[in-house]
Amino acid sequence: MTTAGNPRGGHGAPPTWSPDGSRLYFVNSEPRLSQAEIWSVKPDGTDLVRLHAGTKVYEPRVSPDGKALWFGAQNEQGSYALYRLPLGDGGRTVTGPAEAATAVRAEVPRSPSFSADGRKLAWSELTTTASIWSLPLDAATGLPSGPPAVLTAGDGRATWPIFSPDGSTIAFGWIPPGGSNDVWLMDADGGHQRPMIEGPAVEYGNDFYPDGKRILCFSDRDGGKFNAYEFEIATRTFRKLPIDLSDAISIRLSPDGKRIAYHSKRDSITINTWMADLTTQTQQKLTFDREFIGYPCWSPDGKELALEVRRGDDIFIGVMPSAGGTPELLNEKRGLSWAFSYSPDGRRIAFAGYRDDTWNLWWIDRRSREEKRLTENTRLDVYIRYPSWSPKGDRIVYEQAETRGQVYLLDGGPATPASP
Fold first, then answer.
1. What's CA 170's distance to the chain center, in Å?
2. What pLDDT, on a 0 to 100 scale, did the predictor assign at position 31?
3. Are residues 102 and 136 in the same domain?
4. Which end of the chain is more exposed for a tag (fewer CB within 10 A), N or C?
């Protein structure tokens, strides 16, 4: 019913029918979720129209009378509410602006559902809190030498931890409730936490440069367009890199600071891995997959990339020479394996693994392909991401998040918004 690139972005959000079955409504979004839109189309794929644009939009549902579209969305200040968009012309146009029908707050409204008579509306509101955790390791065996400990606190999201080359400092992303992505620093043991790059722009601290004095950043500070920057910690100054990476996702700096690996949908209908050479200012496509090969991370010697390789519903760990070549799968166990870093000797690859309905911290041996689970999470509402191996080999730090939710009811008829 839709085709790649029309409209631009992903069409993966579950579509919803109009009550009479004459139209479908769906959300499309850009890769970084900086823009989302609601579109409508006929079942035969014709009459594609855009109805609404915003930053983050979730699961639109049409009221039983067909006169309004309800959805969760983020406002310009970063907070969320359930919105009502009035429809006209058989549901193919809007007759007024989207208005918040519930209180605006930090929780994200999801999955609105109408009662059979159309007079009641139920939905859930979710909030996720994420912290940086540290797991001590025996440097020789790579196995835990003690229990994991939490390093950060707060109601926002601490994410994407990366070590400085000497292992003494951790940079991490911090997203306060209703705020933008900032970059903070802390000591390896969690001490001396301090902001380094603060909004209003969206900032990502992706990797340290080899000297430990600079950070590769990705930011939309240039008029909303994402670019790669070199950020000097001591002076807090930015230098835009002279190479266009506006379509790049998950940029990672090589150990020698001369190349950037990333993934993109450029020249493809799906995600593939690319390489940018900062010396020659050239870019090269490394993979040509029809499903998904992305999220590259570097081996310590810079000669290899570990990759996420999608096959059907599963994601496996692949490796390939950083100069290019055919990816080799290291594992083929059902589930998700999201690689992020190598051990200092290059022997093991740390990854967030989804097995038996839960997320845990794992590593896989590069040569023997043996897998080891390092944490003992059994909770379904917890996820683990971005395991970063210390250059000293004595610990892995990672993001661990917990999602909480409540169900709300709007009673009295969706046509007349009321307080839930």
1. 20
2. 59
3. no
4. N
